[in-house]
UniProtKB/TrEMBL annotation:
The name this protein goes by in its record: Thiamine pyrophosphokinase 1
Reactions mediated catalytically: thiamine + UTP = thiamine diphosphate + UMP + H(+)
MF terms (GO), sorted A to Z: ATP binding; kinase activity; thiamine binding; thiamine diphosphokinase activity
InterPro entries per UniProt: Thi_PPkinase (IPR006282), Thiamin_PyroPKinase_B1-bd (IPR007373), TPK_B1-bd_sf (IPR036371), TPK_catalytic (IPR007371), TPK_catalytic_sf (IPR036759)
GO cellular component, one term: cytosol
UniProt-listed PANTHER family: THIAMIN PYROPHOSPHOKINASE, THIAMIN PYROPHOSPHOKINASE 1
């Protein structure tokens, strides 16, 4: 049984985000970044999550996003959109908003420690919460766009590198409107590639951030690596794509960042949304 679990946690399926099944348990974390996901996907992700978290200014981002859909959480009528808890140092939050959300069901966790980012501290608090509540999660979807300040972007990547020491054996995927990003730890990984991304030869990349990788072997990519070394200042695998196989495999001796475009998947969701509106 332990061997099966070890294999399973190294299998990555992006469709878990787009077609959520009842047996897939996950948390949603919203960082202080624009929320650009289409509302039918974002609201579904939130509604079906076991735990929902907004991080400091991400709380205002979430409330404003909901207002654009005609949803006013603060009037007390939409309890399902109230975060399970709100964390952060609260330097980007209105005290009135935070207290109002507390009144209607959110737990407020102030984390002033400046040695960690609010994102990192949110993972720490999530780990404490799921252990206390005996919640088993398969994944954590972190809603954050890859835009804005470059130091924030790198800070988010740094949190992915720290995450396994904070909250173990749970896949963490950063979800943007045009891409997914996550950390591949040393070992063998399988990534399931949706058909539409294969048909449109969508982009993907492998990045050895922080340290050289000495032995990387892949299958399923247009430009595969065969026991190859990668490092910044040398070879890195950017602007890669797929070789028509429904699965990419990666065997690595060091932690790597995997990132992949999802624009065709998002466009499919948009088309379905427009069709439903026209039918209505």
């Amino acid at each position: 049984m332990q061997h099966e679990l070890e294999i399973e946690k190294n299998v990555w399926d992006p469709l878990n985000i787009f077609h959520i099944t009842g047996d897939y348990k996950y948390a949603v974390i919203i960082l202080n970044s624009p929320i650009c996901l289409k509302h039918n996907l974002m609201l579904q992700l939130w509604e079906k999550a076991q735990v929902t978290i907004t991080v400091d200014g991400g709380t205002h981002r979430w409330l404003n996003y909901l207002k654009e859909q005609g949803i006013d959480v603060l009037n007390g009528s939409y309890s399902k959109y109230v975060p399970t808890f709100i964390s952060g140092d609260m330097d980007s939050s209105s005290p009135y908003i935070i207290h109002r959300l507390q009144d209607i069901g959110s737990k407020i966790i102030i984390t002033p420690d400046q040695m960690f980012t609010d994102y990192t501290k949110a993972l720490m608090q999530l780990d404490l919460y799921i252990k206390k509540e005996n919640i088993n999660l398969h994944g954590i979807f972190v809603i954050v766009e890859n835009s804005g300040r470059f130091d924030h972007l790198l800070g988010n990547i740094n949190t992915l590198y720290k995450a396994d020491k904070i909250i173990q054996n749970i896949q963490i995927i950063q979800v943007a409107s045009d891409s997914l990003t996550w950390l591949l730890k040393p070992g063998f990984h399988r990534i399931k590639i949706p058909d539409i991304l294969l048909r449109e030869s969508n982009w993907c990349g492998l990045l050895p951030i922080g340290a050289p990788a000495n032995q990387i072997t892949t299958t399923g990519l247009k430009w595969n690596l065969d026991n190859t070394s990668m490092q910044f200042g040398g070879l890195v695998s950017t602007s890669n794509t797929y070789d028509k196989y429904p699965e990419v495999t990666i065997n690595t001796d060091i932690s790597l960042i995997w990132t992949m475009g999802i624009e065709p998947l998002m466009n499919t969701i948009n088309d379905m949304e427009n069709l439903s509106m026209n039918v209505y």
